[in-house]
Amino acid sequence: xxxxxxxxxxxxxxxxxxxxxxxxxASATPTKIGGLPIAFLLAQGFEGxxxxxxxxxxxxxxxxxxxxxxxxxxxxxxxIVAVPAALVDQAVDDAIxxxxxxxxxxxxxxxxxxxxxxxxxxxxxxxxRAAGVRILGPNCLGFMNLSEKVxxxxxxxxxxxxxxxxxxxxxxxxxxxxxxxxxxxxxRGLGLSYWITTGNEGNVDFADCLSWLARDPDTDxxxxxxxxxxxxxxxxxxxxxxxxxxxxxxMTKVGxxxxxxxxAASHTxxxxxxxxxFDAVFRQYGVYRAYSIEEFFDVGYAFSxxxxxxxENLGVFTVSGGAGVLMADAAADEGLALPELNQQAQDRIRExxxxxxxxxxxxxxxxxTNDIGLFETxxxxxxxxxxxxxxxxFLAAAGQGPMGEHIAEQIGRVRERYPDRxxxxxxxxxxxxxxxxxxxxxxxxxxxTRAIRALSALxxxxxxxxxxxxxxxxxxxSVTLRTGSYSEADSFQLLADFGVPVPESHLVAxxxxxxxxxxxxxxxxxAKIASPDxxxxxxxxxxxLNLRGAEAVGQASDEVLAAARRACPEARLDGxxxxxxxxxxxxxxxxxxxxxxxxxxxxxxxxGVLVEVLKDVSFRSAPLNRDMAMDxxxxxxxxxxxxxxxxxxxxxxxxxADLLVRVSHFAVAAGDSLESLDINPVRVRAxxxxxxxxxxxxxxx
Length: 701
Prior knowledge:
Helix content: 25-40%
Organism: Alcanivorax xiamenensis
GO molecular function, one term: ligase activity
Strand content: 15-25%
Protein name: 6-carboxyhexanoate-CoA ligase
InterPro entries: ATP_grasp_subdomain_1 (IPR013815), CoA-bd (IPR003781), Ligase_CoA_dom (IPR043938), NAD(P)-bd_dom_sf (IPR036291), Succ_CoA_lig_flav_dom (IPR032875), Succinyl-CoA_synth-like (IPR016102)
Structural class: alpha/beta
Number of strands: 30
Largest sheet: 7 strands, mixed
Oligomer: single chain
Radius of gyration: 31 Å
Strand order of the largest sheet: 9-8-11-10-12-13-14
Keywords: Ligase
């Protein structure tokens, strides 16, 4: 992160943790935009001074009013601006002159409506930056600091009740969605530390808020709702900060628009949609992506209550065989391991309950109705003897009945004996039982499948935490590409300089030169048209395979030249490129696409020329290390093909990973001068024999 960004993050303290608040455009009517924040601050018990600024009033909602913010004696940390767009410039300039360092700008009428509005917003933000002032907005719903009772918002949801003080920070680029999420959090009883909406992000963006929450001592988990991102590298730095702080990030990202579709010459561009790139970046930094509001809160709740397990083995404890099967099926769907309980432990449980099914799931049946102590005793045996990091206990309806509190107390005692395990109870709960479980850091769910999915998310994050940190982009060697497409030969030379294995190749002018070149060579050859203007050679008949003998090579060379002249009469033809035929191995594609927000993004796909049909691809933001490259390989749906199928030997996966790393280094070195790169196909040979790039296309911006 740059020094400027670090300074910005420190300045956000005055914005999000103010000791005094002024409201410019304050209203005596508590239901108006200029009146709601004052009403909320008063009702919720903000302990600092509140200064209403209204030139037409001497008093606002029982507080002394000021005609101008400059009249306020003492420091104002936060100014809430709730005036029409035409008055915003003066209000912000007045706040800057009064040495205010944090501003929440509710006002709309800026970049969200027109180009003229964008220019006005940019000019306003430039003045604020020059003065070291941080502005949240414009066109935003503001924020809430639940810990210190700062309600810098006009959202009416606050008037309906607030969430408990908790340790979940919530950031939303959408104010309306943020209000909706706040309401759901309140209904579920989830405790929030901060609720922040970013609006137009003129001066403080989503990444700034994420970075700030990553270092906030009152926040353990960060939930985010994103619609887009203008500075991908800044977002990556924020995600890296959260990862380094050990704070889980749960993200809902909407919008699935393609980027780069105009770069039709590149397979990578056709596949690297905006959503695919965001998805890759989230995986890269260990961000859990939620696809529904239910999952968004379930996972955030699980992180905030139970924490991160030390592993991913699941033990299911149940009083119902059917529910145990349901949960086991859900665990299998989520990829959670359910190791069987050892025989000694099974025998001990059967001594307690002769008709129990104690393998895993461990079903002790409804006998706890007769002897409630069986619950704690059996659960103890299970954890003492079994290697379980996560425990899900299905209690049927016991959470609603008289046994509920007793079971919750037993779980609490077991939890104390096994503090490194994650516990989850599934039942229909009375509120006191739920509260007791959560005080004991035990999750409480009503739906068994949702419970398993939440536990799976915790296990996923535990795996991510074990991975090494993402490397910081380093310029190293620098390459400046010229605009336009490079020939295959020139593309090979660029890649070879970065250690990418390229084939033996010979550029010949025509069939006669081709015959002379291979006259004494008995190998099989490939003849391909060489032209920077023909990216997909096979589409125009510009490729001939498995040629043996000088005559066959020469004739094929003349044929591909003729085919190219017919199909592309305006194309520049450099000749024919001859290479030895590579027949064995798995075909992949490796590419790079320049994303407008994140810069160079590396793609790996299975299928070679069929990649756009199969769409079996994975992405990462450059640069890569070897672990990240292996993650890309392992994410492919057809990953098993590389292990060898139908008698084929295992492919050289390590060499493929090395190739991905080297390509990423080339992409970083080329920087903004690179538009895209396709290496298609890459032949992955048998284990120990390496890889080779059989075709390559570099396009400079």
